[in-house]
Amino acid sequence: MSVVAEEINAVVDELSQLLGDRLSTSMAVRVHHGTDLSYHTPQAPDAVAYAESTEEVVEIVKICGRHKVPIIPYGTGTSLEGHITAPEGGVCVDLSGMNQILEVNAEDMDVTVEAGVTRKRLNEYLRDTGLFFPIDPGADASLGGMSATRASGTNAVRYGTMRENVLSLEVVLADGRVIRTARRARKSSAGYDLTRLFVGSEGTLGVITKITVRLYGIPEAISAAVCSFDDISGAVDTTILTIQSGIPIARIELLDDVQIGAINAYSKLDYPVKDTLFLEFHGTEASVREQAEQVQEIASEFGGSNFQWTTKTEERSALWQARHDAAHAMVTLRPGASVIVTDVCVPISQLAQCIRETKEDIANSGIIAPLVGHVGDGNFHLGYLIDLDDPEEVALGKELNERLIHRAINMGGTCTGEHGVGCGKLDFLIAEHGEAVSVMRTIKVALDPDNIFNPGKVVRV
Amino acid sequence: MSVVAEEINAVVDELSQLLGDRLSTSMAVRVHHGTDLSYHTPQAPDAVAYAESTEEVVEIVKICGRHKVPIIPYGTGTSLEGHITAPEGGVCVDLSGMNQILEVNAEDMDVTVEAGVTRKRLNEYLRDTGLFFPIDPGADASLGGMSATRASGTNAVRYGTMRENVLSLEVVLADGRVIRTARRARKSSAGYDLTRLFVGSEGTLGVITKITVRLYGIPEAISAAVCSFDDISGAVDTTILTIQSGIPIARIELLDDVQIGAINAYSKLDYPVKDTLFLEFHGTEASVREQAEQVQEIASEFGGSNFQWTTKTEERSALWQARHDAAHAMVTLRPGASVIVTDVCVPISQLAQCIRETKEDIANSGIIAPLVGHVGDGNFHLGYLIDLDDPEEVALGKELNERLIHRAINMGGTCTGEHGVGCGKLDFLIAEHGEAVSVMRTIKVALDPDNIFNPGKVVRV
């Protein structure tokens, strides 16, 4: 702890007066709130404040700010890069109690929610409107957390990421001021794009308290398809030509043979154990049929086989359930192992080469590492199955990840397609952006001069 | 001039040594470079520097920075809100000589260009690749200028604005450092979104020297349609339902009866003089037919008549030429008049009401003001036909615009959908964003502490 104990004690006193039993210093609660889904070592905050309104967040920020005590915003704790660890202690602000869906504008196809609303709850709420919110990072994350990490997922290839889908944010700044970054217009050239500045800022510039996002009409027809390939190149070339042809594919996911093997075992399925594309098409009845036919033709050109497509909801659900269970399934390949997840994203022309070199590197290491990829965006994940109690294995996993990231950066790619920087990629960010990181630091210092917001994440100050 | 003459003289001397006859102080050149397409009073810079490389821009910025002399980046001078006026004098940096198309990545569907490349030249260059760059602000603007103003245009409803389509920028900062804001990956969660911060910064945070943008496959089929309505509501309701139905419409433009009358006269056409939608569909042959049929059905539900659609290239070109000539056509309604162009954008549910109230206001004023709108985004323009030599008329035009903007803001909209803030909307920006403008100012001061970049635009310092 770099913050002196008296300051923490004073903050805990003041916050207890403000929040009563919604301020917790219990060890179990603190440890829970410093632990995400990543391999990074959990670090507990000194206290957890359960906020129920923007006004309470303002008071919490003011109290912490006066004492220069760190503030770590918390949604559902499903971060994958150590975003919620508390390396300098401080107060975790749990926003899950801010869970009101405030305003659905069906004609405008947007909705405003409090930061703690999760994506599944939002979609359940929207069910009767004919609208849905497409961003799907796997976990049932909160909209606040998804905004903060610039999350995306399986259907970003069609609907974009949080960057494209957040219309406006309410943010509490370091001095307790509250701003709204934009109004609800679909487009605007009115000044600097503060919305996009806070989307992806990972809690280091302010606390996001409300979010307005775009919605979409539930498609008239949805169909899904599976197709296997003898090698990754065929799957990637199919993806490239599909996108170049302007086919408005909704999902195009790559699972390598290792991952397919795991899924078959875990989900009791019998896909050919090959590199495989899972696809989804949204549109009219005629359009989804035409899209599927077009992609089937492209796939067959590149050695795709067993192309099977379906419009049946149950079959489609089973397919995507299997895809979403990929993370659980992969652990069955090495029971008891932990997973180090990677997240590079490269220009799609480099994807096959990047995957091939990476798989060679992995093969030489002896580590098991299934691959899943949002291949339409050039983004793929490996899960290194590691015994976290074995320092040599951990070091090996980190080395593999480091080589992968430098490989991706050298190909014009990024160290993180959708998981964020957190505490795990500070140096990779510098490798990727160079001098631009100093501009990020200038902005951080200008907006948070005392470095109270999520210190140790994104940029070092 | 607020900058002392000695400093200007010193800068001119140093720049002349650097650039030779590519540094001009001729009155004609200076006046030309301080004059855009707006109604704002032109203000000439003290000198115009024709840069031909990033390295030259760096030297220009360093020289101006040392003497605290303003720098105004210049693309094609087609700005609509006074972005290139020089209220404090200084050096206009003309980037039209930076016109190299540096790298087309056909598989990745992106291209990197120097800032002076114009959109039409880019599309001519791309013709043989099967790819195109969709953003279409009317004028043949430069990619640098389009990035700086967050431009869009007729097909933003399908392809997005510059916000969604810029992948990466090279920017020269106030101290002469050069950064690249991102790599070429389609998505990234690697740190603060500097790309989006500079897109729309209007030359106030740095000089954009290179731009990487997304490209799209030229659609297999393109069709266009026209449909007229007895009132604006029918056209707007058709638009809302079209978008809610998920029809991937490429263009949906509203022209009111006044504008249609002007176009008929100017382009020798015979559209019914009614509120009219111009539409375009992109896709496969089957898909564009299906889309047109769907929209026709929706339009007829809301009183649309004379629905005519075509896949013939000549007819389609004639239609969009007429649309693009709208600005020229409107002037024929009052020969010799100048145009004050408005640019609000509102949530689409408010669009009909906003237009109705605005038209009442205009009717009461006696001013002629045709309307064209990118109605799928909720963005529309009025052209107030004004005698700029008549102060009362100018004041009336400004009052109408002011009432329109406050009406739009009160409806959840923005003062500018695509033209930018420039020198014309500083106060409207405050009305729209409130406290958030002070965050913009904090960022401006942090990145440009001496206020050398395009002073007097976007935010007051």
Molecular structure report:
2 copies of one chain form a homodimer. The first copy, chain A, has 17 helices and 18 strands. With 461 residues, chain A is an alpha+beta fold. In chain A, α1 (5-19) packs antiparallel against α3, α9 packs across α11 and α14 packs antiparallel against α15 (391-410). Chain A folds into 4 domains: 5-96, Uridine Diphospho-n-acetylenolpyruvylglucosamine Reductase, domain 2; 101-217, Uridine Diphospho-n-acetylenolpyruvylglucosamine Reductase, domain 3 (2-Layer Sandwich), CATH 3.30.465; 221-328, Alpha-Beta Plaits; 334-422, 2-Layer Sandwich (Alpha-Beta Plaits). At the A-B interface, β9, α8, β11, α9 and α11 of A face β9, α8, β11, α9 and α11 of B.
Keywords:
461 residues; 17 helices; five-stranded antiparallel β-sheet; Uridine Diphospho-n-acetylenolpyruvylglucosamine Reductase, domain 2; Uridine Diphospho-n-acetylenolpyruvylglucosamine Reductase, domain 3; 4 domains; homodimer; alpha+beta
Could you tell me which chain pair has the largest interface and how many residues each side has?
A-B, 97 and 98 residues
Helix content of chain A: 25-40%
Q: Proportion of β residues of chain A?
A: 15-25%
Span of the ends, CA to CA of chain A = 17 Å
Task: Please tell me how large the radius of gyration of chain A is.
Answer: 22 Å
- How would you describe the oligomerization state of the chains in this entry? homodimer
CATH class of the largest domain in chain A: Alpha Beta
Give the overall form of chain A.
globular
Low-confidence stretches of chain A: none
